[in-house]
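Q: Entry one of two.
A:
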Amino acid sequence: MGIADDAALYALGYWMHENHPSRISGLCLNDIQRKTPCDECNAVCPADLSIHEENPNWKGCTDCGLCVTACPTQAINASGASCKQVDSAVDAAQGCVVLACRRYEGAADAVLSCLASLSWDEIAAVALRIPVVLKTGPCKTCPDVQAASCLKETIRRVKDFYGSEEFSRRVFPRIPAALAQEHAQGRASGAQRRRLFSTFADSVKEGTARLSGNEELPSVSRSRAMLLDALASLPLEERPAVRWLTLSEDGACRGCGICVKMCPHGALSFAEDAEGTCCSDDSVPRFLAHDASRCTQCGLCYLSCSEGNLGGWTELHTSEIPALACNPIHVARCEKCGRFFKEEKGRTICPACSRFRFRP
């Protein structure tokens, strides 16, 4: 399914009636492989629900949203109620938008069960539209230590993504004095703010459809679709140079393509050149391209690599979307079976075929 199939349908259809998160089939690590079971969502669920199952029973869900940020592949989207609350606040806010949890006693534009339910890429996407104020004061005395730690990690990731200087212009612990009057006027008047898109639903539908290109591409989560479209919608000269994490490849690739097939987000592909041009059926790949803007660092690629040559992350600073990093590989096509193998001088058939004798 394409991005629009999950994110846009989620936003435009039944999302307004949901009061619990939704699981995206095909993105969960347990849907893709069985060797290393994942239960990160279960571990953080205060209601002890079995969210990792194919059809979770959401009875008893408090819509805290902790499972959304815990999932390594972003296979869980936030509830429709939570989405609508944040989106309405962002659209109506002027100057800045104030987000807080239920334990916060002051005024806020959106009050969530827990700020830890916000993924880092959703915060980053909102911050591209309007400065974000996160009221984290109650976290210091929060009885849920795990949630407080999760929020701290989320804020760190947003800061790493933007860099300290850009982060300080977009995310604040309190309303900046320069924005206080405008924000107060916005709250008093209830004026609607439209900056990048007419509505959240339209933005997700149009943006994710543009990002997917065709319905055969694997999905990304709603929050990542929001971030990618928000970046792509800005003119290149206005787009900040942000920091993605890209894979390190040690040069031992033999072109088996297992990592490409296993990646749930379609972040890996074989390319003919350093610009990431996709290989045709009869061409030999010269690069392993990694789209860092789609990657969630779930680790499935290096767990599945038979050569163990994928691993480690390096920073990629760019304002380009997609954020491509192309690793050179040296492979050849076997003249017997047609499969790729690690290129060696003088060798024309792969190691598997070399073990057998073929008739001339």
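Q: Entry two of two.
A:
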Amino acid sequence: MNKRLRTIVVVLGLTVLVGGVITVIQSQTFANETITGAKVTDNSNVNETKARAKATDDSNWLSPERKKELNHLAQSEQPHILLTEHGDFYPVKVPNKYPSDQVANLDNDGEEITAKTKQVILRNFTYEKKEEEN
């Protein structure tokens, strides 16, 4: 009985193993067909997958309406933090009053963040540098 049970387990195990191998080979063959499938048009080979990939890599794959919507979202949402070489600036709802030499309004041309800057205005959002606690 013990030998018969061992034989049944081995046969079932091999059956499952062979079934798994066949499934993997079939799925890989299908994947290869989609990658290398070529279509003959006017005596030239055109790789369909490369054509599809190029279409999605192209910057024109978004509709003009969707581009406009994404651009609006990017311009209207406030970043969580501004990382600069002069420190990190965090968003504030109620800005403090600072002298004009400590405020950098990046919406205006020519203004830059310096080491003295404590407040930054970017796209009408206000950010302030947090004071280091010692």
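A: Comment on entry two: The radius of gyration is 31 Å. The beta strands are 38-41, 44-47, 82-84, 87-91, 103-105, 119-122, 125-129.
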